[in-house]
Amino acid sequence: MDKTLVEEYRGGALECVHSGHICGVSISGAVKYAVGDVESLTYLRSSGKPFQAIPVIKHGADRKFGLSDKETAIMIGSHRAETFHVEALESMLTKIGVGEEALVCHPTYPLSVPASEAMLRAQKPKRSIYHNCSGKHLGILALCKTMGYPTEGYFEPDHPAQIEIVDTLAYLSECPREHIHIGTDGCGFPVFAIPLKHLATAFLKLACPEVIEDLEIRSAVIRITALMNEHYEMIAGSDRICSSLLMDPNIVAKGGAKGVYCFGLKKEKLGFALKVMDGSEDEWPIITASILEQIGYSNQETIDRMYQLTPTDITNDNKKIIGTNKAVFTLESI
Predict the structure, then answer these.
(1) Which of 23, 75, 239, 264 fits as disulfide partner to 139, beta carbons 3.0 to 4.6 Å?
(2) Model pTM score
(3) Which candidate, 3, 9, 7, places its Cα nearest to that of 23?
(4) What count of Cα atoms within 13 Å lies in the side-chain half-sphere of residue 293?
């Protein structure tokens, strides 16, 4: 059963309640912290992008096409199509040797409001590379060309690239492959649902690759997580939670649509996964800040950045304080 995670008050009266689940696992693989149901089946959505990038790095597709570190990092990102994102994506199209029409993700305008407004003012058309998942798609197309796989249908669940992705996720999450539910994501890719505790386990291994026995996968994880920290701006964008958390070199983090957020802590050797059941993302920073505070996390600057993204004070359009956000859950030690 889900538990209340965040309450929102306006004028002293309760207006909104956001419920969900949280799971924290230790390096032993055991559940250490729980709120709600750690077995809750959860679609990874874009929190799965680090795992989808592993076969690309494992087989050296980034090296084959001479991709820069920033270009490789955006494969893992949910970018906002800011100028520096678009520059990297256009360069990738050229280096990989594919046309934009090869991407199954639908043409759209940037998620970045300033970038989208600039496109509209200039009367520029929607483009597939503006889609926040386009870096992931280009990465898999690069993998296909490296391995000799067909690029047609690269997004189908029975494509060899997609089969390797789900096998990789099963290995790192310790969720049996036959128990992984497969749906279709908004961008056209397969999307996977696993119990929350397995998702936390997978992020624990991103933060602590020393526990990964497969040396090729371990090496790919080390490179991927280093890129996430070094080029955090490519993973999300300006003033986004993923980029803000990844400024901290001790954290590996990635969120997805419909309220799922995950992060691993390197020194503390912990992996966390959470799901806001109403699908809201606005509560992620305040929930993450509360988790970090409750475990005694030492980097106060990281916690402060979370509260800058989602302040405890709710303000109206005139910047007047009219209410309060409050994280109300308590991590239960198992």
Answers:
(1) 75
(2) 0.96
(3) 3
(4) 15
